[in-house]
Design goal:
The chain has 155 residues and is α/β, with parallel strands linked by helices. It is 41% helix and 15% strand. It has helices at 2-19, 43-48, 74-87, 118-121, 128-131, 137-153; strands at 24-27, 60-63, 93-94, 100-106, 109-115. Strands 1-2-3 form a three-stranded parallel sheet, with helices on one face. A two-stranded antiparallel sheet has the order 4-5. Helix 3 (74-87) links the parallel strand 2 and strand 3 (93-94). The protein starts with a helix and ends with a helix.
Amino acid sequence: GYKTLYDNGQQMGTVAERYNSSFVLAIGDNFYQNGVQSPSSKQWEQVMGKFSAKSLQVPFYAVMGNHDWRGKPEAQVQRHYQERRQLGAQARWTMPHYWYTVRHEVEDQDVLLVFLDTPILAPEETEQSARDNLPGFEQRLNQLAWLLHVLATAR
């Protein structure tokens, strides 16, 4: 529940401070059990509000998990743009698309972070309740083509 999430947020804040973290990876199932319904749903505060430590006021690079696909997944992408309109550089939620890249400096190295939507890539590995919301085969091919391009042009 939310108590566990609060405890996790506290621990993440401690670790992020110790290592001077410059971002957080939110690698799916961001809104457990049934995703989120809108970019302004109360779940945003219930979840993101638990990560309130000063050391966690950094970008949260997010991707979808199977539980996110049970809700309205487009709400997480919409939240990315809503936060930028409202908060500008203070925006934390980062998910400009279901798949995307970000360049980030990590220990003086330029790193290309590649974010994929694995439920789209492997719908057969996703339970039926989430699979019903997944886009069709064309989006699977689009993501694969995009990934091949990213890997071919990465430096």
